[in-house]
Write a structure and sequence with these properties.
The chain is of the alpha/beta class. It is built from 10 helices and 10 strands. The structure holds tetrahydrodeoxyuridine (THU).
């Protein structure tokens, strides 16, 4: 799914990546016969309130607004009405435009806190809900409500972030986020891009890439970038790190093994390479036996 982002404030790239994965899974779960697109505005409560007042005559902030571009027949959603989908094809953009999604990041933050999960996860929920509307689902009547909930659950489970459970982020999501982080690698000297996605036990995901320096020794690896971001945001416990590299497997270097063992001596490590064709996993305790630690006596 091609998403056109309209960002009214700075947004964490990890949140955008999870939303993109959710949108791709929505397209897959619905079985859309043609490439589709949507415009996604991420703003604050004041902006969403203004739109709610302007377009829906409701002068209050809300979490998400959906503006479908296609009017689907009742109960016949985008996957089952390819004719209607085809008529919305925009040859310039190369996609069928499904409509506009507006999400309030203030609501994302508050609801994530309330449910005890990450903001990325909450944003992905809201996007999936809204995309279901754009694809013709509704929840006015009991039967259609059930169909919409089922589709939402199908999509969210494929992303690995279903409504129940703690940090049930799938390996597929983590690996995609690692590959996504790899695209931001700054590696003009080695030409060896690395990306990482670190899953904290509270469900937050932190991405990192390698950042090289003309003074070679000042280079920081992807894994440490991710963990430094995480610890500086208050995360101290971690479940899994996914690491993506190009043609050859990128098991963490010795410094990263020691660095990560400070917080997660038995961290699960998954590596992927060769355009995601290869995946292997291990435990940090196996990669770094007898790690150096200063124990309180
Ligand atoms: N690199 C990582 O990002 N992670 C590792 O665990 C191994 C090495 C980076 C550092 C440098 O930018 C490039 O890979 C080549 O060494």
């Amino acid at each position: 799914m091609k998403l056109e982002w309209i960002l009214k404030r700075p947004v964490d790239p990890g949140l955008l990546s999870l939303m993109q994965i959710a949108a791709d899974q929505a397209a897959r779960a619905e079985g859309l016969a043609l490439p589709c697109g949507a415009a996604v505005t991420l703003c604050g409560d004041p902006e969403i309130r203004e739109m709610n007042a302007q377009f829906r005559d409701m002068d209050r902030a809300t979490d998400v607004l959906s503006f479908p571009a296609v009017s689907w027949r009742k109960g016949i959603t985008a996957g089952r009405d390819t004719d209607r989908l085809r008529r919305s094809f925009d040859p310039e953009e190369g996609v069928c435009f499904l409509g506009d999604v507006v999400i309030s990041l203030d609501h994302v933050k508050a609801q994530a806190l309330e449910f005890g999960h990450s903001q990325a996860r909450e944003a992905a929920y809201l996007l999936v809900h809204s995309l279901c509307h754009l694809m013709g689902y509704d929840h006015m009547e009991e039967e259609e409500k059930r169909a919409m909930r089922e589709k939402e659950e199908e999509i969210l489970s494929a992303v690995g972030v279903n409504r129940e459970g703690g940090a049930a982020v799938s390996d597929e999501v983590l690996l995609s986020l690692a590959r996504d982080a790899m695209t931001r690698s700054y590696s003009p000297y080695s030409h060896y891009p690395v990306g990482a996605a670190l899953l904290a036990s509270d469900g937050r995901i932190f991405q990192g890439c390698n950042i090289e320096n003309a003074s070679f020794g000042a280079t920081i690896c992807a894994e440490r970038t991710a963990m430094v971001k995480a610890v500086s945001e208050g995360a101290r416990q971690f479940d899994t790190i996914a690491i993506a590299t190009g043609d050859t497997p990128g098991w963490p270097c010795g410094i990263c093994r020691q660095f990560m063992s400070e917080f997660a001596p038995d961290l699960r490590v998954i590596v992927t390479w060769g355009d995601g064709k290869h995946v292997e996993e291990g435990r940090l305790s196996e990669l770094l036996p007898h790690q150096f630690e200063l124990k309180d006596e």
